[in-house]
Amino acid sequence: MNNILEIRDLHACVMDETAENSCKEILKGVNLSIPAGETHVIMGPNGSGKSTLSYVLSGHPSYNVTKGSVTFKGQDLLALSPDERAAAGLFLAFQAPIELPGVNNANFLRTSVNSVRKARGEEELDPVNFLKLVRELSKKLSFSTDMLKRNVNVGFSGGEKKRNEVLQMTLLQPSFAILDETDSGLDIDALRIVAEGVNGLRSPEFSSLIITHHQRLLDHIQPDYIHVLAKGRIIHTGGPELSRQLEAEGYGRLVGEADA
Amino acid sequence: MTKLTQDPALLKQLETNTYKWGFETQIEMDMAPKGLNEDIIRLISVRKEEPEWMLEWRLKAYRLWLTMTPPDWGKVNHPNIDFQDLHYYAAPKKKKGPKSLDEVDPELLRTYEKLGIPLKERAILAGVEGAEEMSDVRAPIAIDAVFDSVSVATTFRETLSEAGVIFCPISEAIKDYPELVKKYLGSVVPQGDNFYTALNSAVFTDGSFVYIPKGVRCPMELSTYFRINAKNTGQFERTLIIADDKATVSYLEGCTAPQRDENQLHAAVVELVAMEDAFIKYSTVQNWYPGDKDGKGGIYNFVTKRGVCRGDRARISWTQVETGSAITWKYPSCILQGEGSIGEFYSVAVTNGHQQADTGTKMIHIGRNTRSTILAKTISAGKSDSTYRGLVRMLPRAKDARNFTECDSLLIGDQCGAHTVPYIESQNSSVKIEHEATTSKISEEQLFYCQQRGLSQEEAIGLIVNGFCKDVLKELPMEFAVEAQQLLQISLEGSVG
Fold it and tell me: Per its UniProt record, what PROSITE patterns does this chain match (chain A) (predicted)?
């Protein structure tokens, strides 16, 4: 099997800001394989470690891996810095995109795209060609070009922030994207745009890991597998039909079974 | 979550930032013995072939200086300076009138090269014939290069003199335009203004003199590259710029200095005089040696810069990007005397390592309807400490005067400090004074977000810092804005792996 991502017995903790040298374990042995071309979904109760998993995979400095391994396209992902992971093709759509006051959005997008292109040995885009590309994509994503002139995520509405994430994802052409509750707080139109963004990237070379609480995003994106993460471990894996079942029953039964 | 960057590797890098432009030119120096007394002042005056009145002026300042003590109110710490352990005069042995490139000391040309002075300007500096006609897309810039204490070359003289503009070393102005110098020297910054201005008035060796006659818009940006070069040489530059009625001038001052172990003292004085409807724009990019990672060495920069809007509707604008020096003590100020006159201060001050900066401005509103704007951006990294200190004073006659002040501080890491000390005094109830201040940090979350998008930490910091400063950077003339942007990146370069 040609797995793009291979997570083995992953344990990770988050640095406690209030106490020195204290690290609270969140992930307690995650195993997950994602083959190229597949879309996987992670669902699970609040506090089960879904966002932690996305941060650990993308290399957030506040999280420490204490055990286990992650292989991404055959290389040791955990040995790479966050920007090296981005260059290697990993993208994280943030649950709460960060504001960068004073940094022009178009300038940020171009710096980002060119950093990644450079790292991948591709030619950098000049401002004219970049602007052409970004205008085209913005139109596709119903993303007002006015947002390109504003500072990164500053004063953006929740929906605008999420669309900005999708625009970045589309520009960076990742081979693996993690969407951390990108659908939360979106209206139906915005939801469809996010779904189109993901679907537009789908190919045999592209995989994604979608973290969500809701069935409704999955009406637009057909996943291959759905995993349930609870208490730091994947306790159940099923097909696309699992999400409807969970919506009807909740996590209670599965979590109870796992505890038993 | 907006906690400070605590990555030990990152913080270590912040401290070990190395100075890129540390080099020393081997040129024979003509140097006075260490120490300061009336004989040394006489020697300086003789070497500069000065008239008697100038010597008297210096001696008067020296006697004032003897009665004064260094100011101690700034938020800076340094060992006491032994003023008797400094050389007060050093000049490269000048070949007579370097009129072609071959005649100029190749060491000097290499120095210009390392400073990044464009080839054309180097050629002009060296006085190569026809150099001024070389095609160049950039707007012409005239440079009065101060190499240690003597102006080595002055350019564009002819073009400027056709417009009636005087732009020359102040030592020449003392000889050639004594009436102008006598009238204005010390008229804005009196000899006894403070300890360092008294010292400067006694021993200044060179600097620039600019006079823009009535109604003349100076046809080019005027530029001086300052450079401290000799060991243990205090530099005491003196600059005097006068814009007569309806005249306009933009003056650029840029600095880099070679790496040293000894602390070097720099106590310059800059005086600006803007008459009715005149406009003086004074821009500085300062990148002197800040000291090593332990805070050893580095330039002590105690500068007094002040402009007076003497006529109605006159305008003076200070823009500065300060990234260097171990200690910066500097408050470019405006005295708004003329009715409706305008004072502006745009500043970016970056401190890293063990640097200390206490900088800001003073806006003294005297006339009616006078306006001032202060925009100060402070960036602190490493173990550095940065203070904005600003005075806005509204005098009784300043009816309807207005001031707007914005001070923003950006912190990188958790061992640096930023302080804002505004002094506001008003003696007229019709005035309007606004003060805004913010302090923010480059958060770990912001860096991570940028890195997740493929930017290195270095690029991320550069992007955020430039974004933070852009309102000030856009005030710089084009030629300087690019240089300043690079300098910001270089100054914080060590801050990441």
Answer: ABC_TRANSPORTER_1, ABC_TRANSPORTER_2
pLDDT at B24: 53
Tens of pLDDT along B237-272?
899 999 999 999 999 886 554 445 455 778 889 999
CB within 8 Å: A111 and B7: no
Residue A241 lies in a domain: yes
Q: Which of residues 100-139 of A touch B (CB under 8 A)?
A: 100-104, 107-108, 111-113, 115-116, 119
Residues in chain A: 260
Phi, psi for residue B68 in degrees, rounded to 5? -110, 165
Give the nearest partner residue to A61 out of B444, B450, B469, using CB atoms: B444
Residue contact B453–A103, C-beta within 8 A: no
Q: What is the pTM of this model?
A: 0.77
- Gap from A176 CA to chain B (nearest CA, Å): 13
Residue A249 falls inside a structural domain: yes
Tell me whether residue B2 is in a domain.
no
Q: Is residue A124 part of a domain?
A: no
Contact call for B464 and A102, based on CB within 8 A: yes
Closest-CA distance of chain B to residue A125, Å: 15
**How many domains does the structure of chain B reveal?**
1
Comparing CB atoms, the residue among A82, A85, A108 nearest residue B463 is: A108
Q: Is position B325 within any domain?
A: yes
A91 with B452: Cβ contact below 8 A:
yes
Domain residues for A60? 3-98+174-259
Sort out which chain A residues have CB atoms less than 8 A from B440's CB and list them: 101
Instruction: Measure in Å the smallest separation between the Cα of A242 and chain B Cα atoms.
Output: 31
Q: How far is B414 from chain A (nearest CA, A)?
A: 14
Q: CATH number for the domain including A30? A: 3.40.50.300
Nearest CB to B459 within list A17, A92, A111: A111
Domain total in chain A: 1
Bridge partners of A40? Answer: A209, A225
Closest-approach residue (CA) in chain B for A86 = B454
Find, among B310, B45, B64, B57, the residue nearest to B182 by Cα: B57
Which residues 50-79 in chain A show a CB within 8 A of chain B? Answer: 58-62
- The answer to the question of residue B3 being in a domain is no
For B469, which residue in chain A has the nearest alpha carbon?
Answer: A102
Query: Looking at the domain assignment, is residue A104 inside a domain?
Result: no
List pLDDT tens digits, range B127-178: 454 444 443 333 455 655 555 444 444 556 667 888 899 888 888 899 999 9
Global ipTM = 0.95
Quick check: A98 and B449 CB within 8 A?
yes
Task: Report the run of H or E that residue A5 belongs to, with start and end.
Answer: strand A3-15
Q: Work out the burial of residue B18: count CB atoms within 10 Å of its CB; fewer than 13 is exposed, 13-18 middle, 19 or more buried.
A: exposed
Asked if residue B154 is part of any domain, the answer here is: yes
Q: Say whether residue A254 is in contact with chain B using an 8 A CB cutoff.
A: no
Q: Please give the C-alpha separations between residue B488 and each of B274, B324, B495, in angstroms, as whole numbers.
A: 31, 10, 12
Structural domain harbouring B292? 8-495
Q: Give pLDDT tens digits for B312-333.
A: 999 999 998 888 778 888 899 9
